[in-house]
User: Fold this.
Amino acid sequence: MRLASCFNHADFRRLAERRLPGPIFNYIDGAADDEVTLRRNTESFEGCDLVPNVLRGVEEVDLSVRVMGQDLAVPFYCSPTALQRLFHHRGENAVAAASERFGTMFGVSSLGTVSLEEVRTKHATPQAYQFYFHKDRGLNRAMLERAKNAGVDVMMLTVDTITGGNRERDLRTGFSIPFRLTIPGMAQFALKPAWAFNHFTHEGFRLPQLEEHVDTSQSLVSISRYFSEMLDQTMNWDDVAEMVKFWDGQFCLKGVMSVEDAKRAVDIGCTGIILSNHGGRQLDGSRAAFDQLAEVVDAVGDRIDVMMDGGVQRGTHVLKALSLGAKAVGIGRYYLFPLAAAGQAGVERALSLMRAEVERGMKLMGCTSIDQLSRSNLRFR
Ligand SMILES: Cc1cc2nc3c(=O)[nH]c(=O)nc-3n(C[C@H](O)[C@H](O)[C@H](O)COP(=O)(O)O)c2cc1C
Assistant:
């Protein structure tokens, strides 16, 4: 199987599975507990049908949107995800370059493996910085200042990760950073020498967003210890209100789900919220963002940009979310598997297929611009 024979998410996933050592594939693919929310995220789109209009003259379609002050050529963007250079040696640089080619936003994770400055300098595309809130308030301010100086466009505070999710696939394989693999986990690495060759013959693995502030060189700082010891579980709305003021620019909360929280985000001056359950990796049994979208849009959609992510694998998923009122839609695993399978070329192929699907779907729906999508195009079963 080769990249050219990948036509959808399932194909990219299969190719990534062939190329990645098992523990890394399962880190991407897996989710919390029984992975109920992971499955529901994609299934949620299936309870909703599109109702097309015809004979509308749809030769030219404009897919552009403006969200959080950024002009995007397509209504989907690459959500921030951790550890990308473990999946492919070019990591964030490959995803950011592909995002730039498609005119869309790229999110750099706090647990990113390329520095936010490097991504900013090399790729002229809207850049979000995904932030975790640390106990050390001085560190938070220093990191915000660093992002400001780098020219980050959108601050994205993840609020659904106050403690790590229970990812049992990782417990079984021993996946952690640094690796503390079980014997079967180690054997999986031995089976993928091409991955190992690429990984070990390129620049060493780093966590540049953190290394100035945390000793990431030694086995003592594992990602789970980062979550349990450095992040602040007392974080509350007053803390975030202060951050929003300090940032003084586009600021969104990633992982808001309730109407009550959406309203509070408006009250403290956020300019966006992302409905998300972290790809099912945190609270299993939590609602899918698509299921929750309408009530949040109804409550705050006229005052704040509402986005969503989770389970998006098709252009029609994007169209359904936009029809309900999302301003843009985030993708995660949809670009991570192609990254693992084929680096930048893989991500470009995935984004190209997604763009073609959205455009084709728009034409078949009888719409020539995103603002023509509305709830009148949808019926729930
Ligand atoms: C491997 C992986 C790593 C992730 N790392 C982060 C992260 O560092 N910060 C964050 O806010 N979200 C992270 N996410 C969540 C994504 O930003 C996004 O919410 C999720 O992937 C959307 O679901 P999807 O994968 O079904 O598209 C990660 C997701 C995956 C799959």
Remarks:
- The two ends are 37 Å apart (CA to CA).
